[in-house]
Amino acid sequence: MKNRKERWMSAGAAACCLLCLLPSCAKQTKIEEGEDFVYCINGEGTGLFKLVCDISQETPNDGAETALEKMASPSEDIEYMPAIPENVKVKSLKVEHDIAYIDFNKKYNEIPSIEEKLVRAAVVQTLVRLDGINGVWITVEEENLKNESGKVLGVLNGDDFAESAGSSPSAYEQTTLTLFFANESGDQLVRQQMDVRYNTNVPREKLIVEKLMGGPKKSGAYPTLNPSAALLGVTVKEGTCYVNFDSEFLNSVYDVRPEVAIYSLVNSLLEGTGAGSVQIMVNGEKNASYQETVDLSQPLERDLSWEEEKEEE
Fold first, then answer.
1. Residues 260, 187: contact at Cβ < 8 Å?
2. How confident is the model at residue 193 (pLDDT cuts 50, 70, 90)?
3. Are 147 and 117 in contact (CB under 8 A)?
4. How far apart are CA 185 and CA 48, in angstroms?
5. Which of 110, 132, 233, 263 could serve as 60's disulfide partner, Cβ 3.0–4.6 Å?
6. Burial class (CB within 10 angstroms; exposed 0-12, middle 13-18, buried 19+) of 75
7. Tens digit of each residue's pLDDT (9 = 90 or more) over 109-128
8. Residues 6+ apart with CB under 8 A from 247
9. pLDDT digits (tens, 9 = 90+) for 145-168
10. Which of 158, 146, 152, 263 is nearest to 206 (CA)?
11. DSSP string covering 42-66, please?
12. For residues 245 and 251, what is the distance between their CA atoms, to the nearest angstrom?
């Protein structure tokens, strides 16, 4: 039987071409409705593999701990490899405010790049399925995990792995977004239509936040959100859109009312998605206050009272 290293070497060429980490691309066991499972890595090292197992979950922390143990259990089956390599250990785990914080030992940094993407995808996609977990933050020896360009990955969710390396024309579509920006005086909202061409693998809610942070493309409207803020994660779950920024988000760089900045984000997301509310988080925490004015501890609903009334022609 090939060991883990040999299987990864033999799969190298295929894996180099395969940056699409969607579980649907992986060989899977037959999962009955309602059954628990974790993601492992298929025997070829080219995708994810669903492994049926019981996950006890009295608390989110219990569920995450059980799942990670299952994902690290040795396999004698050539159909799959454990998602977490033998020498990689979980040093600490805690679930706070719907985010699972995992700290691995330094051996995590020795995982080859291609394999690491699959390991990360398996861990994140397994944990966000559990009740009470909407995102995963990975550190190594208490240092934030970073991508190839050195940017902190921050909170990850399933959407972060729904991207392919291809750039074929069929992967792109045209759409029109309704976004809310500030008026000239910064005390009210102005809605604008923005035509965008986008990769269909990018979730609509992420597209909305990124375009909003990029500012308006037409005259008569002004930006509201700090463009230097890092978007750490955005996903819709059970009717709520969770948006997570780094702390730079709290630093306003435009002369707009705090309510205008926040509701430009909330109204834009609720206008363009099926969500009914928006939970804004800062570094995974919900207890923030924007400019000491807008309480972000609870989900916010659409508020069109901030929209500027159009003059009758």
1. yes
2. very high
3. no
4. 51
5. 132
6. middle
7. 998 887 888 899 899 989 98
8. 282, 283
9. 988 778 788 888 766 665 433 334
10. 158
11. ETTSSSEEEEE-----SSHHHHHHH
12. 11
Token readout for 29 is: 């066991």
Assessment of whether the complete model's pTM goes beyond 0.70: no
Report whether pLDDT(220) > 80: yes
For 93, how many CA atoms within 13 A lie in the half-sphere containing its CB? 18
List, as one string, the DSSP characters of the chain: ---HHHHHHHTHHHHHH-----GGGS------TT--EEEEEETTSSSEEEEE-----SSHHHHHHHHHHHHHS----TTEE-SS-TT--EEEEEEETTEEEEEE-GGGGGS-HHHHHHHHHHHHHHHTTSTT--EEEEEETTEEPB-TTS-B--EE-GGGG---S---GGGEEEEEEEEEEE-TTSSSEEEEEEEEEEETTS-HHHHHHHHHHT--SSTT-B--S-TTS-EEEEEEETTEEEEEE-GGGGS--SS--HHHHHHHHHHHHHHHSS-SEEEEEETTBS--EETTTEE-SS-B---GGGBPPPPP-
What is the Cα–Cα distance from 161 to 121, expressed in whole angstroms?
A: 6
Q: State how far the Cα of 227 lies from the Cα of 251, in Å rounded to an integer.
A: 10
pLDDT score of 50 more than 60: yes
**Contacts (Cβ under 8 Å, ≥6 apart) of 288:** 250, 280, 281, 282, 296, 297
Residue linked to tokens 């190594």? 140
Residue where the block lists tokens 């909330």: 266
